[in-house]
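=== RUN LOG ===
request id: a7f3
mode: sequence -> structure
chains: 1
length: 196
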Amino acid sequence: VNTYFPLYSTFFTQLGFNVVMPEKPTQEGIEKRNAAFCYPVELAHGFFDSLLKAEQRPDYIFLPHFKSVPNLEGYKTSQVCPFVQGETFYLQSTFNEEIAALENQGTKLFAPLLDLTTGKEASKDSMIETAIAMGISKSAAEKAFATAIKSQIECMNEMQEIGRKTITELEKDPSKIAVTIFSRPYNGFVEEAHMG
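=== RESULT ===
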């Protein structure tokens, strides 16, 4: 899900919204998980709790049901971890009272299904439906989505280019050593998850 932040943030920013992310997870939120989970899921609880307790109440909460990423290399499916798929459900269940209190104050929560099996563009209908439910015109949402897809593709291309440049630099100087760390984006890209 973290990998697709450029898609989400660009989409909502293009629609005129200020995208807010919690800066730190709360320990209280982590402790509300009520079951043993992997550390990224514990962090999801902490960050969501932080968002719900923000000084300024959010007008909207975007908590998608993220099912799969685009298929590569001809595979038929490319499902994400079951905990990633279930995030919208267990966070809504855990924080149902807090969400209800915010909804009573006017906050709206959106949890569209994002199944990118056939490509990033497969999220278009869900994203546009979300925007329409937020009071945005379909034409504005379509324009924002086109910009968001472009931003997402540019981000992924940039990551690949950084990788290619790094390999080229290493090939030029055989005395250099590289260490490759394989991780999921929600572990490798989030300082709280990999502990620095």
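=== NOTES ===
The chain has a mean pLDDT of 88.
The first helix runs from residue 5 to 14.
=== END ===
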